Amino acid sequence: MSLLRLSPEGLFPIPCTSNGQTTLELPLAGTIQGEGLLAGVPSLFLRLSGCNMSCRWTAPSGERIACDTPHALGVQNSSLVTSASLVEKIASHRGQIRHLVVTGGEPLLQAEALVEFLAQLRPLRMHVTIESNGSCFAPELLPYIDLWSFSPKLYPHFLPAYERSEADYVAVINQWLGAVPPSAQVQLKFVIGQRTDEAPLLRFLAPLRLRPTDVVMLMPLGATQEALARTTPPTLELCLRHGFRFAPRLQIMLWGNRVGV
Ligand code: SF4
Fold first, then answer.
1. Which terminus of the chain, N or C, has less C-beta within 10 A?
2. Domains of the chain, earliest start first
3. Which pTM does this prediction carry?
4. CB of 54 closer than 6 A to ligand 1?
């Protein structure tokens, strides 16, 4: 039996036993997906712990901005849980929610335990999204995922934890694009901080073997409304120039940079 290592918020939001409310101050579980094709859809989130990258972006002001889920990068305050206990929790809290988003950190680092969990989750017939940086190929997960949400990190935005070349990274994304079955959807979300991200973006995209149904989205960098206000104009400009879809971050607009919402 494999255990899943979860970040401090783990499965969220679900009512906390002490006050019967979630981090959204509601008496029932769930939030909305804030990003991508399913933005606005009521969902539960499962945040796994650990990542093989340590991203840093440069904002238009020159400020260096780090990963917006630092608490999910290491094992500090993480917990190990069984698939059975998670499935039971989802079954008892989901109400009318039919979407589960598995995120991180980098969830594909725990592919073996995820397969076990998702196989046990199947009877609940949840729609499953996985949010990943796309750098690890784990085809054993293919039968279980409905939406593959890859967020490739453009060079040089991630630092040494991931030590492979851009060509290697692109090759792994191409492996995914060739392997995801037509019954599942792929979205590629690129974080844009400033206009100079255009060249690395186009260089990364050029060798990708995108299929007609794959969706490329650009998402403004920032974990606060103020930061998004600065990075939205250059992101919009790139979307309009190249025909990419703009991906807002509804959760930041609604709740700011809160954990567990
Ligand atoms: S890949 Fe994602 S979770 Fe990992 S460090 Fe980068 S932004 Fe954070």
1. N
2. 4-255 (3.20.20.70)
3. 0.95
4. yes
